[in-house]
Amino acid sequence: LPIHGTKLRLIEAAEKLFAEKSTTSVSIRDITRAANANVAAVNYHFGNRDGLVAAVLGRQGEKPVTAE
Question: What share of the chain in percent tops pLDDT 90?
Fold first, then answer.
């Protein structure tokens, strides 16, 4: 199933912030602020912060690797 809406916004915001900083230095509030989402949305969609991190990392496996 395609990911859309708030869940997609959270994944994309987390992915961008993790790339800029690191997974350990980005807070849930940073992610939800960037995704324009409620803090509770992370628990609703992913169970917890670790679930969101796993979703971001899992999504990385779906993207083609290209040389830049």
Answer: 72
